[in-house]
Amino acid sequence: xxxxxxxxxxxxxVSAYGTPIARSAALRFGIVDAPDGKLxxxxxxxxxxxxxxxxxxxxxxxxxxxxxxxxxxGILLAGAIVIVVGLLDDLxxxxxxxKLAGQCLAAxxxxxxxxxxxxxxxxxxxxxxxxxxxxxxxxxxxNIIDVMDGLAAGVAAIAALALFVVALMxxxxxxxxxxxxxxxxxxxxxxxxxxxxxxxxxxxxxxxxGLLLGSLAMIGSYTRVNQIGxxxxxxxxxxxxxxxxxxxxxxxxxxxxxxxxSKDHFALRLRRWAFSKRRTVLLSYVVCVILGACGIGLTYxxxxxxTYLLLVLALGxxxxxxxxxxxxxxx
Length: 331
What we know:
Blueprint: H1 3-29, E1 32-33, E2 46-47, H2 50-65, H3 70-90, H4 96-112, H5 124-145, H6 151-169, H7 173-193, H8 202-218, H9 232-236, H10 238-254, H11 266-273, H12 277-298, H13 303-325
InterPro entries: Glycosyl_transferase_4
Protein name: Glycosyl transferase
Subcellular location: Cell membrane
């Protein structure tokens, strides 16, 4: 089917063309991430606004190759809301509480468009709050993991491709097309974002990417073979979810505010320990590929094999968290 390769190629081309334009605009208006000698250790200010190119690439690719039904429009509208929220935050014009309120509004738009967790044994009164919470968690997980050149964009692209495979195997063309459009947009953006990055996606991009992946993962089909397949999205998006939970845990143990910036992220700890930036990012890609394959496999495994797989992954998560916590980050 030509629709899928066309969607991916269009998204790559629009993103690769639009990212330098976004970079020039960010430099012109001073929308940059300036080094501070603490968390931001880059040698020079790096422009934001890469998220605008990513959003435009997704929008153009979908406009050419796919029809905008209610679900697609709902996701794109919610995405536009977080784009505005992220842009204002990149301009340093938004307080955290207002930023969260904007994300809540986007989540409500998704729910009103019928984008929510769909499980036969999950009643509506539980599905609604769980869907709302899931969107906020995944949106902020990608916002938090965006701490190193190419990390968030590459991890998101791999996760999008995993969701594309699941959707393709289950006959869900809307999810498959949107996931592939996002993967293509991120691939085009990575030409400029991989080390050494010349542009960042900023909150504009990380919030949009998180919301789109959270939405697509939430409405996929995972339980045709077994009843534990519904956990597949947690595995496919395991890298950003792990970083979010790990950072929250470490900061709470230290008695610091959960959303305070620090060097507690797994990528920064690996960088501090023994890896270069590039190796840290590439290792994260490998882990994301493995988790994506495990998530896909979980949807088609027997209940017994699926249970064993979940136990192994849970044990690996605990071991990694313990080892990472022992790394001195020099606080």
